[in-house]
Amino acid sequence: MDQVFSALSHRARRRMLDLLMEGPGMTVRALASHFEISRIMVLKHLAMLEGAGLVVSQKAGRERRLYFNPVPIQVIYDRWTTAYTAFWASRMVDMKSRVEERAQKKGIRRA
Hints:
Elements: H1 2-8, H2 11-22, E1 26-27, H3 28-32, H4 39-51, E2 55-60, E3 63-68, H5 71-106
Antiparallel strand pairs: 1-3, 2-3
């Protein structure tokens, strides 16, 4: 999970993921054409994305085809967002009940 957060912390890597979502199967050369950094830097960013499991590559002749893998992000979403959503939903229900109870005590009617 730390590798995923670390990989997502850089703007260029997030942009690479966006490009791979828009164009699955993009070659390294095509991906590198969107950046004004050296091909070596692109390859280093890709290595980090692959290490985090966010990018999967497939060799096709002399080229590598790149694909975005959303599973690590889904794992983070499930781990963090789902638990917090349930927590805050229960807090909102509790708050609504208290507000309605106070309104009834004061004789305020709902519109």
